[in-house]
Structure formats: structure tokens, C-alpha cells
Design a protein that fits this description.
By secondary structure, the chain is α/β, with parallel strands linked by helices. Helix 10 crosses helix 11. The chain starts with 8 loop residues before the first strand and ends in a 22-residue tail after the last helix.
Length: 418
């Protein structure tokens, strides 16, 4: 008998679970868009957004998803015919490169596969080989949502500097912002792309582009930028409507205000610690399951795994069968194995993903893991015993005051991933 009469749980890597505070803030009549609280809240809201990205720079807000934010970032700093370098570690790295190609850029992809992060020696060598500095920007992905690989952005900046290369460092933080530790200014990132529907816990529909003064100077040198994508007035508007290039996304703004209040009320360090603990509980369960069956974490090196999403390999047809069972019998939705195999390839059915980002806590993750455990049993998928005990043991331990994955830099005083 199906056990689906309670609240469904969306355990995918975005859209993430929306908090009641966000839903309540959005559940209201349309506000005045000419004066009053909506207009007055914007300076503090943009400042609090920048606090999440750990930057003293600028932010432009777009009514878009992450793909739109990709295009917005590129439109401001890369002209048709200019070269960009894409160190790809999954489907979304390639996707950003495809957007650049569509804008007329000359795209060079360095494909590092689907299981390991960027090789910094190879990356630095590619930059050193560009003697005439034709590469205008590096399009990096902090966390690729498809593979759950987390790249070392501070090491990437150091490689660019070691090569003496002037290219902008542009980073996709769509899956990682407010989940995995990220330090825009301390790590020397010039442009950051993010979106509302993951760690920020707001429905899809807002894209964000953070940029520093170096990137702003590149924008000023551009011959032409589409009026809508131009970040100049969005970042420093003279009138309220210029924040959004037209009518404001009113209810998203209220939801975002509520989510930022939650993040800063908890404290960003505490948010990162919580994601780290819940991720490690997830991995502990997966490692036990894998000892007696085909399930395996996609990323072997713990330091290079995202704290927001875990990509798993289980072999066809178990991935699709497990997701279908969980949806049908437990009303738990897991992520598809996006980009791990072509849709027409039977191997596509051997992958799935667990999202543990944003508004998640111990009982939500334990409930998801217990449901997966039941699914493995119901489907007769071989697996090791004791996975739930392993996850619970992680959560029961006293939290370490220094979470895994902090950057190794005196400005941040911690240790980097990978």
C-alpha cells in the first residue's frame, strides 16, 4: 500500500524546499511598485545578497533562471569573437560554454570528465600557452549540479595569477551559494553567477550576477551590451524599476527578503556547517550501502564533493527504478542522473542525485535516507546493512567548529577543498 498521504519531499538539487517564512512572505496582495516598503527595502536587500556572496562588490538582479544569469554575465564582459576558457567538470560547465558560443564567443572547453575536479596543472598550462592573452575570461563552475563535483576556486585564482594571465575569473555558484563555503573577494573572483531556487530557498525566477570593479571596467570597455542584460543601471539604479530592467518581480522580492533574514539570522558560517554535517551523514549512508551492492558515490574524494548535492551511480536500471519507487510509494522525489549519460543510452537509468540544500535539517535528511533504504529493500537491490545507523552517528557527533572545505588562505584562515 502506498504511504503517500503526508507532505511530499522534494529531495532534488533545486528547486529546493521553500521555508514557510518565504511562502508566507510571498502570500500577499500585489504591492505598490512606485513608492513604499518595496522600493525602500532594495538597498538593504542587495547589501545582504552581497554578504552571502562574501563580496564588497556589486550585484545585478535579473528576472531569469540560472541560464539567463549565465547569459547576462557574459553579455557584459565578452564580445563576439573573443575567447573564453571553460574548465568543465559536468553538464553545467558545458552548458555555460554553449551559452557563450551562442553569443558569438570562441569557446575552448577543457573537459575534466564527470568524476574529478579541475586539474590545476593542466589548467595553468593552458593559460601559460596563451602568450598573447586572447582568453578574456575563464568560465568555472564551483559546484556542477550534475556530477556534484566541487572545484577549488581559490586554487584556480592562484593558477591564473601564477600564469600572469589577465583573464576574468567568472564562477557559476548556482548550486553552491549559501550551501558550500564560497568567498568571492577573498578568493579573487571577478564575476559570480547565482539563482534563487537552491541555497537561497526562493522559487525559480531570479538570477544574480555579482561583479567587482575589475569586471565593471571591462564592461565600460565593451562596444555594445544589450540594454536588458546591461548590469550598469541594475547595480546602481537611479530609479526603482532599473533594478529589474522594468516591472519588478514583486513577490519574489518579498520571498528573497525572508530567505536572507533566515540565512543571516542563522549566520553564514552556521549555514555552511549545517550543510557540511548533513552532507557527511548522506555520504556515510551511501558508503555503507555501497559495501554490499552496486551503489557508489560519483566523487571519490570527499574534499571535492559538494555539500549541496550528491551524485550517485548504481547501474541500470536501478537508478530509474529506485526513483520511481520512492515517488510512487514514499512521495520522495530524487534527482535524475542529469548529464551522466545520453537520454537514449540505457546507462542513463543507472544514476540519480540527492539534494540536501537550503531549508533542510536532520530529520528531513534522515527521512530521505530511510526512504531510500526501504526502496533498495523493496526492489531487491543488493546493499550493505547499517546505513541509517552510520548517518545517525554522524549527526549525533558533536559538530566540529572547523568544517571541511574552508579555503586555505590567511584572509579566510582555513583550508580549501581538493
Amino acid at each position: 500500500m502506498s504511504q503517500t498521504r503526508g507532505r511530499p519531499y522534494l529531495a532534488i538539487p533545486g528547486p529546493s524546499v521553500m521555508p514557510e517564512a518565504v511562502l508566507s512572505a510571498m502570500h500577499r496582495s500585489a504591492p505598490n511598485i512606485y513608492e513604499g516598503e518595496l522600493v525602500e527595502m532594495m538597498p538593504d536587500l542587495t547589501a545582504d545578497l552581497c554578504r552571502v556572496a562574501r563580496t564588497d562588490g556589486h550585484v545585478a538582479i535579473y528576472i531569469s533562471n540560472g541560464h539567463g544569469a549565465w547569459e547576462a554575465a557574459l553579455a557584459n564582459v565578452v564580445a563576439p569573437g573573443e575567447r573564453v576558457l571553460v574548465p568543465a567538470t559536468g553538464r553545467f560547465g558545458h552548458g555555460w560554454g554553449e551559452i557563450a558560443s551562442g553569443l558569438g564567443a570562441e569557446v575552448e572547453v577543457m573537459d575534466f570528465g564527470k568524476r574529478a575536479p579541475v586539474d590545476m596543472d593542466w589548467f595553468e598550462s593552458a593559460l601559460r600557452a596563451d602568450k598573447s592573452h586572447e582568453i578574456k575570461a575563464v568560465l568555472a563552475t564551483h559546484v556542477d549540479t550534475s556530477t556534484s563535483i566541487r572545484n577549488d576556486i581559490l586554487a584556480m585564482r592562484r593558477a591564473i595569477d601564477a600564469a600572469g594571465h589577465p583573464a576574468l575569473l567568472m564562477v557559476d555558484c548556482i548550486a553552491s551559494l549559501a550551501c558550500d563555503r564560497f568567498e568571492m573577494d577573498a578568493w579573487g573572483v571577478d564575476v559570480v553567477v547565482a539563482a534563487s531556487q537552491k541555497g537561497l530557498m526562493v522559487p525559480p525566477g531570479l538570477g544574480f550576477v555579482f561583479f567587482n570593479d575589475k569586471a565593471a571596467a571591462v564592461r565600460r570597455g565593451m562596444e555594445r551590451v544589450s540594454r536588458y542584460w546591461d548590469w550598469t543601471l541594475r547595480a546602481e539604479p537611479e530609479m526603482f524599476y532599473q533594478y529589474f530592467g522594468g516591472t519588478a518581480p514583486t513577490h519574489h522580492i518579498y520571498g528573497l527578503r525572508a530567505s536572507l533574514d533566515m540565512i543571516h539570522g542563522e549566520g553564514l558560517e552556521a549555514v555552511w556547517n549545517r550543510h557540511d554535517t548533513l552532507a557527511q551523514a548522506t555520504w556515510a549512508a551511501c558508503e555503507i550501502w555501497g559495501q554490499g551492492g552496486p551503489l557508489a558515490l560519483n566523487v571519490a574524494n570527499e574534499a571535492c564533493r559538494s555539500r549541496a548535492v550528491t551524485s550517485l551511480r548504481i547501474g541500470a536500471p536501478y537508478g530509474t527504478e529506485l526513483r520511481s519507487w520512492l515517488q510512487r510509494e514514499a512521495e520522495v522525489t530524487l534527482g535524475i542522473g542529469l548529464g551522466m549519460a545520453e537520454p537514449g543510452d540505457p546507462a542513463w537509468h543507472g544514476f540519480f542525485r540527492m539534494g540536501h540544500m537550503g531549508h533542510v535539517n536532520a530529520h528531513m535528511v534522515l527521512g530521505m535516507l530511510a526512504s531510500v533504504n526501504a526502496g533498495l529493500m523493496a526492489l531487491g537491490v543488493p546493499h550493505g546493512a547499517g546505513a541509517l545507523d552510520a548517518a545517525a552517528k554522524v549527526l549525533a557527533k558533536k559538530e566540529n567548529s572547523t568544517p571541511v572545505g574552508q579555503p586555505d588562505d590567511e584572509a579566510v584562515k582555513a583550508k580549501t577543498c581538493c
